[in-house]
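How a chain folds remains the central question behind the approach discussed here. The record that follows shows the chain in one-letter code together with its fold in token form:
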Amino acid sequence: MIGLAVYLTKLYGVFGALFSALASAFVLTLYWYSTIATTSLFIFLLILFCVGVTQNGPYSLASACMPSAINRMHAGKNDKLVGMATGIIDGFGSVGAIFGPLSGAVILQYTTWGWGLVFLIVAVSMFVAASVLSWQVYLEFSTCRAEDVTQEQS
């Protein structure tokens, strides 16, 4: 999935749209996982595969495509700032990898909601991430539309 997400982003240049689509699909598959995954082993494995694909897609885009896009946009201008921005992006990913399981354990230990609350927090955070990128999606589609209009006029 990492390769496919990065390939599609580089091919079409629509990082925000792909991230938002995968994040929205993740929320949907997480809902399916929490509601219907217990019906049979095959459905459980199929939905678990879909949850993994849709969760890893946005993560791989954020950790692989954003730093390379920053490097391409600002190459040669201020390499120190580009390196700092890339380090911040990767650093937040590492901090999330540390505190995600830790907060999940605290929620399971000290609340009565159990896994339902963990799923809800993950789904809400992914929805917020997709919503924050709505402006980027708008810019990407308006740029694609402007390019189509320019090609039609020539």
